[in-house]
Design brief:
6-stranded parallel beta sheet, alpha/beta, binds thiamine diphosphate, single chain
Amino acid sequence: MANYKSGEALIGVLNAHGVDKIFLNPGFEFIDILSNVAAARVGGGESPQLVLCLDESVTASAAYGNYMVTGKPQVIMVHSELGSLQLGGNLQNLQWGRVPALILAAYQDVDIQRTLWNGLPYDQGSIVRNSVKYDRRLNGDEDLHEVLTEAFRIACTEPAGPVYLCFPMRYLYGEIEKPEKPPAPEETASLPALDMGVLGQMADILIEAKNPLLVSGNAGRYPQNVAALISLAETLGASVLTGYSWMNFPSNHPLCVGIEQIGGSCKKDAGYDDADVILAIDYAMPYVGSTPPPKQETKILHIDVDPLTQGRLLWGRGADIFMKADSREAIPAMEGLLKDRITSDKRAQIDERFRRIATRNEETRKGWYAAAREQSSAEPVSADYLCYCINQVIDEDTIVVNHTLSHCASVTEQIVRTKPATWFGCPSGAIGWAPGAALGAASASKGAMVVAIMTDGGFVWGCPTSALWTSANYRFPFLAVICNNRGYGAIRDVQLEMLGNAHPSEQFIAESAVEFSLDYALIAQGAGAFGRTVAKSEDVLPALKEALAAIRNGKPAVLDVRLLR
Ligand SMILES: Cc1ncc(C[n+]2csc(CCOP(=O)(O)OP(=O)(O)O)c2C)c(N)n1
């Protein structure tokens, strides 16, 4: 049998798994791979594109962003233990976001720091072990096709997640046997067939509920689920709270009470209000759940791929009934059961409830928009007005990436999303996600604009020079709108609450180490992006239009919007 280069083998496996981009920061272990990919692409061959990220943290957030748009498994390459350490909190974000991603890194096979202080051998996998589904140290004899195919299978099996492989430095330099058949993906373990008995039990509880609430977190990662959820909600006349991480349900639908707000938002309105039964579909708790949680007596029905929901019980107490299932099957099946079981009397009650919810939601929404318009000349700029303006300038295909805390409520109230895959958020807690996630989304967006709304802290944690350089260099443009409240608002707010009525002096706040301010527009310009500071309400719309014109021309853009707080 003929041999071929490891690099060609790697490209073959990646092609077979639909991998289009490799987000990387290189080390010596990848030199041959870089040459193989470059040769394949220069020669017009099929190969993923190498996307250089100047900080490893961005390799992970960009892979996350690319996955959100493509739904395809991702590949990240980082240099040995050093690159692995630099992945930082964005590794945990991959895990919480259930992103199927292969992380490849060599290990040092010469003695650099081979033993720990207590004499035990250095364990590179332990750097990532808390935040990946699986990690494996290869000894170098393994067949590359088999290793990679198995790693993809594990990463893609529900609940999906990141997988880490480390290998000897020269593992990817050699030649290996070329298989007779081209590599192909392995089947992932299928989810159990629907348990119609349990689904029927849930349907009966929902039919008897006075105020059922449908909560969906990740169902929208399958675009067809959006239409299916609309049908289900309309059949049941149920309110819908759509999750923070994916676009699951049109936020302007008469039954939609809104987009979930994560904890830390200054308005603190979870939307669970009067629900007596919650049907949570593809839902896991965000890092900081919304407050207040549902009432103790509210029944929770839960359909998800992960019975452990990553070890975090829903709202701290778990579900009354749980079913492990594929939401693409469960949602239409539940609708079918409801249609069969809803009597004509019940139908009349449901129709009445539908009208009541629709009227209430319309009033609420009018209130949100009126409040934003009232602040159209506020100085400094209000978050409601900023988000209201963003909503005016985006179109229905724009991909909105949101990672806000203090201003989360303003974003979720003012931004309307109607089409699948046009809204993404980070369910996890490491805040430096948005710049890279926006970059990754832009790398896959096929012409749709990407607008990311983020905190000032998140912009800095997100390694903006790295994310913006890559965006500019590869022409994967996105607009970053920074909600600049001059520091760590969520922490400052809790601190002020703890101080009660005492009004701290400016010096006291300064000594408290929660405030900072940088010139983000200048940072953007230094990285090759359009950058502008916006301090006045009258400048918000013109600045947004100017920034969008820049991204339409292929250049990333940053608006540093100075908010009241
Ligand atoms: C990477 C990371 N470091 C620290 C924290 C702890 N933390 C939670 S909220 C917060 C303040 C966040 O400030 P910012 O991102 O600017 O948002 P704001 O609260 O101002 O809306 C911090 C530091 C975190 N969640 N993630």
